[in-house]
Amino acid sequence: MKPVLLLIFIFTFYLYHGQNKNIVNPEKIENPIQKNNVGKIVFVNKTIALENLKDSDFLTSSVFQENGDLAIHAFFDNSLVNNLHQLEPNWTAEELLKKGNYQFSFYVDGKLIYTENLNTGAGTAENKKVKTTLRIPLLSSKNEDSWGRYLWMRFYMAHNGIDALTPGNHLLNIEIRPYLHVSTIKTGPVIAEGQINLTVPVQNITEQQIAIQSIQSNSGWKISHEKINTEIIKSLNRKIAENRFKNITGIVIIKEGKLLLEEYFNGSGRDSLQDTRSVGKSFSSALTGIAIKEGYLKSEDQNLKEFYNLNQFKNNSSQKENVTLKSLLTMSSGFDGNDENYDSPGNEENMYPTENWVKFTLDLPMTENTIGKNWSYFTAGVVLTGDILDKTVPQGLKNYADKKLFHPLGITNYKWQFTPQQKPSLAGGLRMRALDFAKFGQLYKNNGIWNGKTILTQDWIKKSFTNYFTDNPDFEGYGYLFWRKVYTVGNNNYEAFQSSGNGGNKIIIFTKIPVVIVITAQAYNKPYAHQQSEKIVQDYLLPALKMSNE
To answer: What letter does residue 284 receive in the DSSP assignment?
Structure first.
């Protein structure tokens, strides 16, 4: 090479690599299977490492079984980081991995069903810098732990994959691209794709499983004789029987204060005490309102320093002293606690193993967030509201809740979860019958009145059902330990405030129509739990009621 050309080559090489520090050397593509399948996704029905993979292991068709095994191997010509580098050439590898990952697109019979930009925490940084293959279990009979299984569940259960894969033959296609979140989402070209023919078996469902369940006597409710669209409810019952809505245990609809629909599934019944997890948080809101009404608390604007000597706890500050009951009820207290962030000091999973949940909470540091302005889901804060109630109301919280809330509503069969100090935990875990959860919802629909007696003030309910975070783009709103949710049916929007708990449990109180809906479910920690409950309400229950309103 001539000296001038050599100098130009060296200059260009160092200029390029000097400006692109994120360039890494990926692993060498030496395996014959990978060499022959670069840019492809292959499907297999067993756990098998790349070095043992053979062409004969590849599936072109399979009978689909939810409790079976299905995995993919994806083969790329470069590592993820180097593919992301094509989208932002001047970013370092670390910057790319903070903002990017793989994008998966699922097609059924040629129609795009779901696209997910994989969370940046999925997969290790080292693998994303050098690896050029992925093995991802989608279904696992051995419950193999993997972000891939949760990705599949989100496609299948939460985003209509299950509706696309009806009984019969289907073509499933998956595409993988790199994505990067800059000001918007930037995606690169497809780096791997593949397809498989799936045969979905027909399930044998009896007419008895589909039929609308009749309301038995002694429900404690007046029975509604209004019409409901029976075909829509039968269609819903079929999907529950086929396990296409999973782990649903109960559905109750109250309309105009009367019991319109009461159904139970998966071994549950009227007298089953449903474990609704964080649904119990809304009871903390109600009991706080009752205590204010009766004068045991002055108002929700009282500060923590009125209830605790905060000098006894770690990280004390004037900000912590000025945390209000209202900020705890709206999950905007400023404590360094966020249950949606595993690295958060105040994550509830850090609280449960401790000997004293109240001390755990009060020891937490504060963030720089303004009290009452920044929302983050903070279970430990609700533990504080329960403790404040317990030390404020006469004879303690357990007695007070029974006397002032449960007994007036005629609720006698229930079980608390308790803190390590054997105090009722208002963080969640309160168990009762679905019909009794419906009473709690109807109390709010009645503006706080039950059998002519005022249990909650109308003003408290108005405050509870106010959205204090109208500028938060991540969710539809939050009140006093109630979520705001808007359901859409056709051209109509139906606003509701709801108690919501792990597993897909809901007490839904609609603000403009005379309806309360309770759904109990046990899809605990499943990524589709809440979406399937909301789909049941929006696609089945509301349309069935809407037909009766026309």
So the answer is: H
- Are the CB atoms for 243 and 201 separated by under 8 Å? no
- Phi, psi of 91, rounded to the nearest 5 degrees: -85, 150
> What confidence tens digit (pLDDT) does each residue in 122-149 have?
999 999 999 999 999 999 998 887 899 9
Q: Which two tokens stand for residue 531?
A: 């979406």
Q: What are phi and psi of 7, to 5 degrees?
A: -65, -40
Nearest to 477 by CA among 494, 463, 497: 497
Q: How far is CA 48 from the centre of its chain?
A: 32
Compute how many other C-beta atoms are within 10 angstroms of the C-beta atom of residue 385: 22
Cβ–Cβ under 8 Å, residues 485 and 476: yes
- The per-residue pLDDT for range 446-476, each reduced to its tens digit, is 999 999 999 999 999 999 999 999 998 889 9
The token pair that represents 274 in the structure block? 């449903």
Question: What is the C-alpha separation between 504 and 306, in angstroms, rounded?
Answer: 36
* H/E element, 516: strand 515-521
Give the separation between CA 540 and CA 482, rounded to whole angstroms. Answer: 23
Q: What are phi and psi of 476, to 5 degrees?
A: -90, -5
Residue with tokens 């050397």: 25
**Number of helices and strands (H, E) in the chain?**
20, 20
β-strand pairing of 100-108 with 258-264: unpaired
- Distance, CA of 495 to CA of 489 (rounded, Å): 11
CA–CA separation, 62 vs 159, rounded Å? 22
Beta strands, E only, 76-231: 100-108, 111-117, 133-139, 168-181, 185-187, 192-200
